[in-house]
């Protein structure tokens, strides 16, 4: 097969849609190795993790998932040992060996096995074998992890219900003290005090835990508290508290996008986004900064440089449909003198892109080829429709401003000032609180008479700091999209959580519009902020932003706005040939065949775009029902690249319409051999075959 020269436009989709529903595999149909993994991790695995695991397609994916599962739980990442994994497996094997007695089930399935696997060896055990009035009981004592919602000290009680079978977990609420006593049924069901007193006579320690699993706690009226049930639930959930199961969903959705090697190296990140209307071209831009919490770095000895290489993939989706997507490379090099600063501060990758109105799922995927790591951020975003109503944009926060020439576009830059941001929005007393407030469609009378009021309020209840600032709007040049930059020293604010409110006041002092954001002032005089890396985009290339807009409108089905954006982009740079191809393709899809034919002549003499020229021209002619001329052009395109199913299907359709049905069937079947999953091609073949059968009947 001949190779087609790849034509890559900045907004062409660079990887395929991957969010689609999957059928779950039944556990019993998995290989024994993976069934054992699910059994071993049953008590520590989130439901989302299991759902994702059962949707994986092959053992390679399953092995990678298992590696990631244990890696995320490793308390000492970067070392060969995984103490969590080793300890868990050891407890599982122990439970399976020693807790099966008296049970038809395997040891890990029993109540004792479950809580031993979750909590490990108790600090003490009290055993009460069968006595005259008490069933066999064991009391296990533990120190609890307060950060996981457990008390500092608690007990678990296991007993043989009715004196036989496996040991069951005792719940003071649902079982009650009577379940521990052979003659417990002789007590009135509500007589907890009587049952407690009797147990105190025969087994005092057992009496204490019969009402509460928390040592020293005797509930009011001797009635067991529901807190016991809550404690048991918290113990069961405790192994899952430190794990964010969203990685499992990412693992599913990123298959084929992120290599299996990268999939096991997910790195947490801090990310912030901001929708900032651009005052120069009037579009809404989505700005973002993503900061991986750890970075792998390599050394290039020949140049005495350290480096890492990031690949950024960004997409906007509605359901399964990709509305916009792009990829950028960020290779970073730095000297040995900068190594410690990079390690201490981290790196933020910043970028921005224009986005049209709509509700989307934003996905930002950042991969570092060094260490094969990746970070991912997902967020639902809502981009408002354009309006003539007045509105506030922001406030947008950072820790200082940096001057830039106004002739370039760069993330978080407005006119000639770039806001230097930290996604954590945490500032030291030695920082400035830099902020920008945008005013869109500010009315003339409000500009001439109104004020901008900034209110900063500490959020602690007592002795909180307050600060306010009022600015006259007419002191700033009025425009359709105007911005007011300000900064205050962070040292003027005491360490606390803060809320900043920006309010627009009319001439009589009434509030017209109000927005707020939050930030933190640290008690430290200096804290590390990530070192930002971004690509500078000259405004002379603004035509590309219009192509991006056009592409998004086309994907949303708004062909009117798409065509207007394509026309604007083309007018700004008519010699941008790749844009001509995209625009002409769009015109064909919009059934504006004559306009597509006129436009495609712009690339007729470009040797690298000859295939696209013949394909688009042939399809436009086909749309106009000039099938013979279309066939001539499609054949020329097929000579350049003979494995494009879109061209083959168009050519087959044209042959069918000119009566050459056998030739049409031959070409369409060739297309199906290249890609069997083409329902339209199959339907056309069936239509042609039916028409042939009808011709035979007529002849008979």
CATH topology (level 3) name of the largest domain: Serine Threonine Protein Phosphatase 5, Tetratricopeptide repeat
If you compute it from the alpha carbons, what radius of gyration comes out, rounded to the nearest whole angstrom?
34 Å
> How many discrete structural domains?
4
Instruction: Tell me the name of the CATH homologous superfamily of the largest domain.
Output: Tetratricopeptide repeat domain
In the CATH scheme, the class of the largest domain would be Mainly Alpha
Structural class: alpha+beta
The low-confidence parts are 1-21
Q: Sheet with the most strands?
A: 5 strands, antiparallel
CATH architecture verdict of the largest domain: Alpha Horseshoe
Please work out how many helical segments DSSP would assign: 21
Mean of residue pLDDT? 89
- What fraction strand? 25-35%
Which oligomeric state applies? single chain
Can you describe what's shown?
With 700 residues, this protein is of the alpha+beta class. It has 4 domains: 1-18 and 254-380, Immunoglobulin-like, CATH 2.60.40; 124-225, no CATH class; 387-535, Immunoglobulin-like, CATH 2.60.40; 539-699, Alpha Horseshoe (Serine Threonine Protein Phosphatase 5, Tetratricopeptide repeat). Strands 7, 8, 9, 11 and 12 form a 5-stranded antiparallel beta sheet that branches. The two termini are 43 Å apart.
Q: Could you give a quick summary of the protein structure above?
A:
The protein has 700 residues and is α+β, with helices and mostly antiparallel strands.
């Amino acid at each position: 097969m001949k190779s087609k020269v790849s034509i890559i436009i900045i907004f062409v989709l660079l990887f395929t849609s991957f969010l689609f529903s999957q059928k779950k595999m039944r556990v019993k149909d998995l290989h024994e190795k993976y069934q054992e993994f699910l059994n071993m991790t049953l008590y520590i695995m989130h439901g989302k993790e299991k759902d994702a695991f059962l949707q994986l397609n092959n053992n390679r994916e399953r092995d990678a998932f298992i590696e990631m599962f244990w890696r995320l739980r490793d308390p000492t990442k970067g070392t060969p040992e995984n103490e969590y994994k080793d300890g868990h497996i050891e407890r599982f094997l122990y439970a399976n060996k020693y807790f099966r007695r008296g049970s038809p089930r395997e040891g890990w399935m029993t109540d004792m096995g479950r809580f031993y696997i979750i909590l490990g060896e108790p600090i003490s055990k009290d055993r009460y074998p069968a006595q005259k009035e008490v069933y066999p009981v064991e009391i296990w004592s533990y120190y609890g992890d307060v950060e996981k919602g457990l008390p500092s000290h608690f007990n678990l009680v296991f007993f043989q219900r009715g004196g036989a079978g496996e040991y069951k977990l005792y719940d003071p609420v649902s079982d009650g003290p009577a379940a521990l006593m052979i003659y417990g049924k002789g007590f009135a069901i509500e007589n907890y005090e009587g049952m407690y007193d009797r147990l105190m006579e025969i087994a005092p320690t057992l009496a204490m835990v019969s009402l509460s699993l928390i040592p020293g706690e005797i509930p009011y009226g001797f009635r067991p508290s529901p807190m016991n049930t809550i404690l048991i639930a918290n113990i069961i959930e405790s192994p899952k508290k430190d794990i964010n199961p969203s990685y499992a969903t990412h693992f599913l959705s990123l298959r084929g996008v992120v290599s299996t090697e990268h999939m096991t190296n997910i790195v947490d990140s801090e990310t912030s986004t901001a929708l900032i209307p651009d005052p120069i071209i009037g579009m809404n831009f989505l700005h973002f900064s993503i900061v991986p919490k750890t970075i792998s770095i390599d050394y290039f000895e020949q140049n005495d440089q350290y480096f890492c290489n990031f690949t950024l993939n960004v997409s906007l989706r509605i359901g399964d449909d990709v509305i916009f997507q792009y990829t950028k490379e960020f290779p970073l090099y730095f000297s040995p003198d900068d190594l410690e600063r990079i390690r201490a501060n981290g790196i933020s990758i910043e970028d921005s892109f224009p986005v049209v109105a709509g509700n989307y799922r934003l996905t930002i995927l950042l991969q570092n080829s060094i260490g094969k790591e990746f970070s991912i951020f997902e967020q639902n975003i809502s981009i408002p429709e354009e309006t003539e109503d007045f509105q506030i944009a922001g406030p947008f926060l950072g820790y200082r401003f940096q001057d830039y020439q106004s002739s370039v576009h760069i993330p978080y830059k407005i006119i000639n000032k770039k806001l230097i941001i930290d996604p954590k929005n945490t500032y030291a007393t030695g920082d400035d609180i830099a902020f920008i407030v945008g005013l869109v469609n500010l009315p003339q009378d409000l500009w001439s008479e109104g004020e901008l009021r900034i209110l900063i309020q500490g959020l602690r209840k007592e002795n909180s700091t307050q600060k306010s600032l009022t600015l006259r709007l007419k002191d700033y040049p009025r425009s359709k999209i105007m911005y007011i930059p300000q900064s205050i020293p962070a040292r003027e604010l005491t360490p606390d959580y803060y809320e900043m409110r920006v309010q627009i006041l009319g001439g009589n002092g009434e509030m017209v519009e109000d927005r707020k954001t939050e930030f933190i002032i640290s008690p430290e005089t200096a804290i590390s902020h990530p070192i930002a890396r971004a690509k500078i985009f000259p405004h002379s290339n603004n035509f590309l932003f219009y192509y991006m807009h056009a592409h998004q409108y086309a994907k949303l089905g708004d062909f009117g706005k798409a065509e207007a954006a394509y026309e604007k982009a083309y007018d700004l740079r008519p010699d941008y040939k790749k844009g001509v191809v995209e625009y002409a393709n769009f015109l064909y899809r919009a059934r504006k065949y004559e306009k597509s034919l006129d436009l495609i002549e712009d690339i007729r003499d470009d040797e690298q775009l000859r295939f696209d020229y013949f394909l688009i021209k042939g399809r436009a002619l086909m749309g106009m029902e000039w099938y013979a001329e279309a066939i001539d052009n499609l054949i020329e395109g097929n000579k350049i690249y003979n494995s494009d199913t879109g061209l083959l299907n168009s050519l087959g359709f044209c042959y069918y319409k000119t009566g050459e049905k056998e030739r049409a069937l031959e070409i369409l079947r060739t297309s199906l051999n290249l890609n069997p999953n083409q329902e339209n091609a199959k339907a056309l073949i069936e239509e042609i075959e039916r028409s042939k059968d009808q011709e035979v009947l007529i002849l008979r």
